[in-house]
Sequence to fold (228 residues):
Amino acid sequence: GAGVSQSPSNKVTEKGKDVELRCDPISGHTALYWYRQSLGQGLEFLIYFQGNSAPDKSGLPSDRFSAERTGGSVSTLTIQRTQQEDSAVYLCASSYLRTGNNQPQHFGDGTRLSIL
Amino acid sequence: DQQVKQNSPSLSVQEGRISILNCDYTNSMFDYFLWYKKYPAEGPTFLISISSIKDKNEDGRFTVFLNKSAKHLSLHIVPSQPGDSAVYFCAARDGRGNQFYFGTGTSLTVIP
Fold:
């Protein structure tokens, strides 16, 4: 079946512009995560959605970052007034959460964002 | 505050030998541990995992060991193959929720 799909795969934009990144999780997966990987760094947690619960936004680095998940499926991560330090690979992951059953996350190939 | 640490940024191993990748963590509430493999320009791919109630899990050439008292996790690859060359990330889940924490990765090179 289809894996996690992210678009665009690459995005180059000028500083100060807004960008929107999209994630299509695996069908049926209830949990969706966004991470950021800057050059030479590990994965930095940004935000987590689980079903109809309020999202865990504790990893968002500033109020320029926001995300939504519509209909419990597709998610969009929006970065307003982009800065050069926002340049990174943005990764989306989904998993099927079920009480008492450990399930790994499945990742998309990411969006490589470059801010000029 | 890095709760999951991979202190070796890189590792080189001869083909056919054992590769040992290490990971340390600080949070005693972690209950599920995972290893991911990542090739350039691709997302991380799940490799193997272990629950905190176990100390070993094996899947083919890959074995994960968990030492809870030392808060240490390791991945053994035997025998190592050139196709194993990739960046390996260690991850852990906080049992109080579903947030995962990742290490900074170890780049493994298997020399033919």
